[in-house]
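Agenda item 2: flavin-adenine dinucleotide complex prediction
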Amino acid sequence: MRVGIVGGGAAGLFAASFLKHGGADFVLLEKGPTCGRKLLLTGHGRCNITNRKPVSELKDGYHEASSFMKASLSSFTPDDAVRFIEDELKVPLKEEENNRMFPKSDKASDMRDALVSYIGSKNIKTNFDVVDVQIENTPDGRKFNVIARDKRQECVDKLIVATGGQSFPQTGSDGKAYDLIEDTLGHKITPLYPALTGIPVAQQDKKFTAKVSGVSVYAGAGLYLNNRKKNKTEGNVLFTHDGLSGPAITELARNISEYVVEEDGWIELDFTPGRDDKEIDDELLDEIRQRPDAKLTTIGKKYVPASLSEAIGERAGVTGILASSVTRDARKAFVNNLKHLHMTIESQPKFETAYVTRGGVALDEVSRKTMESKLLKGLYIIGEVLDVDGISGGYNLQAAMSEAYVAVRSVLC
Ligand SMILES: Cc1cc2nc3c(=O)[nH]c(=O)nc-3n(C[C@H](O)[C@H](O)[C@H](O)COP(=O)(O)OP(=O)(O)OC[C@H]3O[C@@H](n4cnc5c(N)ncnc54)[C@H](O)[C@@H]3O)c2cc1C
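Presented output:
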């Protein structure tokens, strides 16, 4: 039996390593000149390979796919991943804050190179851009004839598709493979959204964010669509020239569609989460009484960095006003902007900057225990091409490894 893997990203490389470990005959087909181009960028070049939380907690990081993911995560846990990477691939790992695991060397290239050398170059075909798959049902069983753009062909008995999502297209995952999977292999693709990326704000709000560009502050963030709060997060918010970023913001991106302008989408920032408006207003009033000669925006430094307090003061129309002459309305306007800063969303975030893609091959057509297609026996689908996206912190690479493991286990049995 010969196995073909389409896509030499994280999922494809791990599937190939597991096949190698199992002594199988296989070929890894990658359309780019090298494998693991996205893997090299992970964790800012340090590769946050997994997260050592217990599976019962980890699964909740996969949004709507959490129950789908539980099966493969339980079969190949973060501890199993650590063992395989350290013992087989010989890449020592270390644990950092929030259970995130990295190579001790802090080099994603060590992980990529170890995978490629473990698999062996004779099992990898690069510049093999798969454009068609022909299925032949012979008396000996099903065959997949995998055809490249340059007409090269590979005939295999089992096929693992690991073509990635649509984000960071320069790494090879440009979304074109979805058409192949839909048109040729017959699988449904759910709507695609860029996820884990910054959110661009409208021109008038860019003036604000550009002024405080580089400032990172702890805040609550709410996403509003059609005047209803759709999601909320809490964490660091980073202001950029283009808009908003940082963990609290990037987690919201997956909910923003291309219709965000028609939906009147906006983000509300709360710089004192967990405390209500009245509490902050009373506290500010006390401060004003105690420091009549200070500017209101200077007093605001109690809550946010100085430059942000200035920008909030400007938006509230209280720039330069001394505490002794602050009116009730001016104070309320300042508190309102501190607790409910309104940032209009300019457009859907970009796939070019998204760390992952939400959406993909519909999960009801894939077995969660084996990753085998429910439509086409012998076909397996793994990695980001599936409708699974995890939060940041090693979740997406762990998903790729766990899915690769259960697919290979099923292929080999
Ligand atoms: C900047 C950045 C940083 C990230 N950091 C982390 C992190 O630290 N931790 C974490 O868990 N996740 C991280 N992620 C997410 C993680 O990298 C991805 O979820 C993961 O790489 C997905 O693996 P994959 O194999 O499914 O897809 P990919 O890695 O995208 O690989 C897909 C491969 O398939 C190939 N391919 C596509 N179509 C064809 C075709 N027709 N024929 C042949 N080959 C084809 C592509 O060229 C590509 O090599 C990060 C993502 C980015 C963009």
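Discussion summary: The first strand starts at residue 2 and ends at 6.
Owner for follow-up: CH.
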